[in-house]
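Figure S7 source data.
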Amino acid sequence: MTSALSKGETPVIQLDYKTALVIGSRPSHTHACGCQCNSPYCEEPLNIPCQNHSGPPRIQVGYEPWKGR
Ligand SMILES: [Zn+2]
Ligand SMILES: [Zn+2]
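Tokens for the predicted zinc ion complex:
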């Protein structure tokens, strides 16, 4: 495998609901760390960092952990 990406860079192709913060076309908000995110489940995003900066995990609609499955 070639490694054209510099260290620390995340290949876009690997982004999914676990790391991507803006998914779909929902309105986005800005977290305390400055990242844009559009999870509908974030509470007070201005006071908490996103999941990529030691914040709580972003929960994507359709993947709510409490729904099981
Ligand atoms: Zn962040
Ligand atoms: Zn958020």
